[in-house]
């Protein structure tokens, strides 16, 4: 589904969420020799959230689930965040919770992903409900396992229980894949304990998640940026997608939606990719194939429309409308991830007449398919202007 945003400078976070935080060269690299996982059985969330095997830790080693909080803002910096700043944010008006984490962009199974080092006892409160509720998952993370996102596991071909060598500048050690569990934070595909993060040379306490349920995140971020240290950045975590319940008016003025010529260019460009293999994180010929959002980014770029990299962000590049109102050139979106209900994890290009062009899943190729509506959340009428703003 994704490859972390590479268009920004090192030691910053991207418009989506994490980007290159490879501080002091501690970029994590992992390779695996596991055989491909079985095809997913959508809806069986317990199968994916439940850990692979049992942790040696006692049940009491990880605190039970507390009050769940929604993370709205992510702050990240090249080095440890000042304690005075953290205290100031905790006491700010409207802040319901602050969670300190370690954050770095690294590579798992050869894919560049966002990795968080967390305290399993407290971080679980900031994750989607199925993920948060799994005691086994968090015991495994506390015991030294890595939890990877549902899409990375299923479409990236990494098996539960596989030993995955992970290395940094000064350390290298295998970690077991303990769970498929999406954390609901775009561009974050791997979570380990803070103990494991320190052993791998990750920066310590260089990021924090902030819950501000009664304040507009953009307003909070504007004030926050005035007190952030040099090099620190703040972004909104997964801005809400307004899913349609009925028809609605769409702007038709020039520049608000794509022109007929742009639509045809997008469709023609997508057709040139037919037959290319599905490759998780793929977005060009150089990688040997495409994933679903990489294919969309490629096709729309040919028409001069800049899209962000991941499906969850591409869903915010225009107006989400019911499928019944979809037209050729719209993008169709699905929330297929059983570990993060509502999180947009798949996207395709609508061709009209019940057909779409997609990069479906691992083991397949870019192809024309019949549209299916299970877990579909609607269609996106792309606005070049909105897309440019989301992509940054």
Give the tally of structural domains.
2
- Indicate the proportion of strand residues: 15-25%
Strand order of the largest sheet: 1-6-7-5-8-4-3-9-2-10
Number of helices: 12
Distance between the termini: 19 Å
Taken from the alpha-carbon principal axes, the silhouette is globular
- What does the main sheet amount to? 10 strands, mixed
Which regions have little confidence, pLDDT < 50, spanning 5+ residues? 3-45
Number of strands: 18
Radius of gyration: 20 Å
Report helical residue fraction.
10-25%
Instruction: Tell me, rounded to a whole number, the average pLDDT.
Output: 83
What is the strand and helix layout of this fold?
Layout: E1 29-30, H1 45-49, E2 73-76, H2 83-90, E3 97-108, E4 111-118, H3 120-123, H4 129-133, H5 135-142, E5 146-148, H6 150-156, E6 163-167, E7 172-180, E8 188-193, H7 194-199, E9 207-211, H8 217-224, E10 233-236, H9 260-271, E11 283-284, E12 289-290, H10 292-301, H11 311-314, E13 318-321, E14 331-334, E15 346-352, E16 355-358, E17 367-370, E18 376-382, H12 384-391
Parallel strand pairs: 4-8, 5-7
Antiparallel strand pairs: 1-6, 2-9, 2-10, 3-4, 3-9, 5-8, 6-7, 11-12, 13-18, 14-15, 14-18, 15-16, 16-17
